[in-house]
Design a protein that fits this description.
By secondary structure, the chain is of the alpha/beta class. It is built from five helices and eight strands; from the N terminus they run βαβαβαβαβαβββ. The strands form two sheets. Strands 2-1-3-4-5 form a five-stranded parallel beta sheet. Strands 6-7-8 form a three-stranded antiparallel beta sheet.
Length: about 160
């Protein structure tokens, strides 16, 4: 199952993004657990408690604590594998986001023309997640982070 995190401080935009992701995942015939957060701190706590996300859609301008770039830096300390895409209406962060190795940057609002960019990100994230997991007999082994794996029974 693909684990996907959305971090957006504006509730209305977070719900829109979640619905968009749900529609795209249904079109791709993929199951995903989609988690939504309004702060980078909450998303990091979820990752530390339950394991890494495969795909992250992160707003750069988060109100309150850390912004999206700061979140990205902290994430990369514990996970270099997640496919991260920044979403923002502010382009002054473009140079800063390079340090955290994002897959892409998409401008807000997410218009119908830009939906294809979100779709490409999800397709890439799915294929990367599948490559990071591999079958071993009746078990699936999932790499959580360097030196740490999860092994469980494979079920269809």
């Amino acid at each position: 199952m693909i684990r996907l995190g959305i971090c957006e401080d504006v509730y209305k935009e977070m719900i829109y993004c979640k619905k968009l992701v749900d529609r795209i995942m249904a079109k791709l015939s993929r199951n995903a657990n989609v988690y939504s957060f309004q702060s980078g701190e909450d998303l990091l706590m979820e990752i530390e408690a339950t394991g890494n996300m495969d795909i992250l859609l992160v707003d750069i301008e988060l109100l309150g604590g850390m912004n999206g770039v700061e979140f990205g830096r902290k994430l990369r300390e514990i996970d270099n594998n997640a496919v991260m895409k920044f979403i923002s209406s502010h382009d002054q962060y473009c140079k800063e986001v390079i340090d955290v190795q994002p897959y892409a940057f998409i401008d807000k609002p997410i218009s119908s023309e830009r939906r294809s960019s979100v779709c490409l990100c999800l397709k890439y994230g799915i294929s990367k997640a599948i490559r990071d997991r591999f079958m071993c007999g009746q078990h699936i082994i999932m790499r959580l982070r360097p030196g740490m794996c999860f092994m469980g029974n494979y079920r269809k």
